[in-house]
């Protein structure tokens, strides 16, 4: 059975043509926003991995799939999903 997810040659050519049709400023914007999204998602995943459950608002098991919902999941976790650490939570 053929791989249905791989773009057909005509689709790949259409995507290349679309990308080439974007101006330099727009291409730079897309690449910049993609990089910001990767950084936010990575930061959220690392924080969720290391943060104890009592410092997470809601179950960690529900935050894992949520942080991969682009573009709002990781931003939502970093904004609302974390509780502040108190002085008793910090280990010397």
TrEMBL record:
It is found in: Cell membrane. Pfam families: PLDc_N. This is Cardiolipin synthase N-terminal domain-containing protein. It is a multi-pass membrane protein. It comes from the Bacteria. It comes from Asanoa iriomotensis. The chain crosses the membrane at residues 28-49, 61-80. InterPro entries: CLS_N. Keywords: Cell membrane, Membrane, Transmembrane, Transmembrane helix. Its main location: membrane. Residues 42-82 form the Cardiolipin synthase N-terminal domain. The keyword Cell membrane applies.
């Amino acid at each position: 059975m053929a791989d249905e997810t791989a773009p057909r040659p005509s689709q790949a050519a259409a995507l290349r043509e679309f990308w080439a049709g974007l101006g330099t400023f727009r291409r730079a914007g897309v690449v910049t926003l993609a990089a910001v999204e990767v950084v936010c998602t990575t930061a959220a995943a690392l924080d969720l991995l290391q943060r104890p459950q009592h410092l997470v608002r809601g179950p960690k098991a529900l935050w894992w799939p949520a942080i991969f919902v682009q573009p709002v999941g990781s931003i939502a976790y970093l904004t609302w999903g974390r509780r502040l650490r108190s002085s008793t939570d910090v280990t010397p």
